[in-house]
Specification:
Structural class: mainly alpha
Strand order of the largest sheet: 1-3-2
Helix content: over 70%
Radius of gyration: 23 Å
Number of helices: 17
Order of helices and strands: HHHHHHHHHHHHHHHEHEEH
Strand content: under 5%
Shape: globular
Largest sheet: 3 strands, antiparallel
Oligomer: single chain
Number of strands: 3
């Protein structure tokens, strides 16, 4: 096995910081309207609860349809070029929504925002810019930036809307996107190569295998339902805060308190899930907490201080699942198919966001705000039942190792020998990339045998 320093190179630091910032700023722009749109959309011509819900979630439909094509096109035409096109589409959508005086205009703007589906291209560019031994940390940085952007959006959105109105929120996201273009152009280094990275990118040859696996389908269902519930309840949550006597400009402080506490409560449960191998238990507890909180939010139990308790319970479960579901996917995805599995998973997430906003708007339009929470609780209960029969994920992790030129000439032999190493559960060797993708049980892995096997042959 080739030994290379795991310290970040200067180009890697620039790529990671720049791309994490791009990803986070885009998610910030998408999420900032979440806590404010329902409160301010009444001034728009043609606004109804159903159409407001569609406006909340429509970005998910265009994102789901276009994120895989954007990633594949970036393989052919270049990462930076496709990311720039996506950012321009996002900025154009923000401008359309900012200028809109009707709910139809906002829907069009939000759909256009989602059409700039650059997530897969950003991840692929990050893989181009980083070595295998630092890529996991680089991807974790992206994940952290998404979580922080969501929390910041919940705080910044209400304050900004109270100051400059709903249109001002969209103008802010447009300006933020233009700054992102400058970062892409001036800060992020050009990619030294453009390869298909099976640990982060889509491989069409593996797609059928990935989408027909029941264990992966459960995780796709989970992220679909999780984001459906999130979008659905934000048709109603802002009104619950108003009913509790909280002024709109102070909603951000309420979200800050709830989400800060939820993040703290989540940490020990993530540790238990990972260190004690209690992934399934923590998953079921999180979904159960969401069922209880959603049902309570739809009943008089949510009055006064109870509102904040149930919101805290919901976001604790939500944050726990946001952290653990990708980890479960990584453990279950076949060797060399993690990127493909993640592409399907992300598509489910965005479709859930679209249907959640639409469902929440329909329930509010037809039966009122309480029906939004009770309908969401019913779906969460069905989700909990579906996950009961899920087997516990095995304690596996993904590893990508570089091969010497001589080793790739003996692929079949190398594949057999790697599969025979204790603790190696699955192997894919890709000669054209000079990489081996492994699924390993680190508790049982014979690291010495693996190192000897992957060392360049002596001359």
């Amino acid at each position: 096995m080739r030994k290379v320093s795991a310290l970040l190179l200067a180009s890697e630091r620039r790529a990671i910081s720049g791309l994490a910032g791009l990803y986070a700023s885009r998610m910030l722009g998408l999420f900032m309207v979440l806590p404010v749109l329902t409160l301010y959309a009444d001034a728009l011509a043609g606004a109804t609860p159903l159409l407001i819900g569609v406006a909340l979630g429509i970005y998910g439909l265009t994102q789901a349809c276009l994120q895989i094509p954007f990633g594949l096109l970036s393989d052919r035409f270049g990462r930076k070029r496709l990311i720039a096109i996506g950012l321009l589409l996002f900025a154009a959508g923000s401008v359309v929504a900012a200028l809109a005086d009707s709910i139809a205009g906002v829907i069009m703007g939000r759909a256009l925002q989602g059409s700039g589906a650059v997530a897969a291209a950003i991840m692929a560019l990050l893989a181009d810019q980083t070595r295998e031994q630092v890529r996991t940390a680089a991807m974790a940085t992206i994940g952290l930036s998404i979580g922080l952007s969501f929390a910041l959006a919940m705080v910044l959105g209400p304050w900004l809307a109270a100051w400059v109105g709903l249109a001002g929120v969209f103008w802010f996201t447009a300006a933020l996107t233009l700054i992102g273009l400058l970062v892409l152009w001036r800060w992020i280094p050009p990619a030294p190569r453009r390869l298909k990275h099976r640990d982060v990118g889509m491989d069409r040859r593996q797609l059928r295998h990935v989408i027909t696996r029941p264990d992966l389908w459960r995780l796709d269902l989970s992220i679909f339902t999780l984001h459906l519930l999130l979008m659905a309840i934000f048709v109603a949550v802002p009104f619950r805060l108003v009913e509790a006597g909280i002024r709109v400009e102070h909603h951000g402080l309420a979200y800050l308190g709830v989400m800060g506490a939820a993040f703290v409560l989540m940490i020990p449960m993530v540790i238990i899930a990972e260190k004690k191998q209690r992934m399934k238990l923590m998953c079921l507890l999180a979904i159960g907490a969401m069922v209880l909180s959603l049902a309570s939010l739809g009943l008089p139990l949510s009055q006064g201080a109870g509102l904040f308790f149930w919101l805290l319970l919901f976001f604790t479960g939500f944050n726990l699942l946001e952290a653990t579901l990708p980890s479960m996917l990584s453990k279950l995805a076949p060797a060399g198919a993690k990127g493909t599995a993640m592409g399907v998973y992300s598509t489910g997430q965005f479709l859930g966001a679209f249907l959640g906003g639409t469902l929440g708007g329909w329930l509010a339009h037809t039966w009122g705000l309480s029906a939004v929470f009770l309908g969401a609780a019913t779906l969460a209960l069905l989700w909990w039942i579906a996950m009961l029969s899920m087997p516990s994920p095995p304690p596996l992790s993904s590893e990508v190792v570089a091969l010497s030129e001589e080793q790739t000439d003996t692929m079949d032999v190398l594949l057999e020998r790697l599969a025979d190493v204790a603790g190696v559960e699955d192997v894919m060797v890709v000669p054209e990339e000079r990489l081996a993708y492994l699924k390993v049980n680190r508790q049982q892995l014979d690291q010495d045998a693996l190192s000897r096997l992957l060392s360049p042959p002596k001359r």
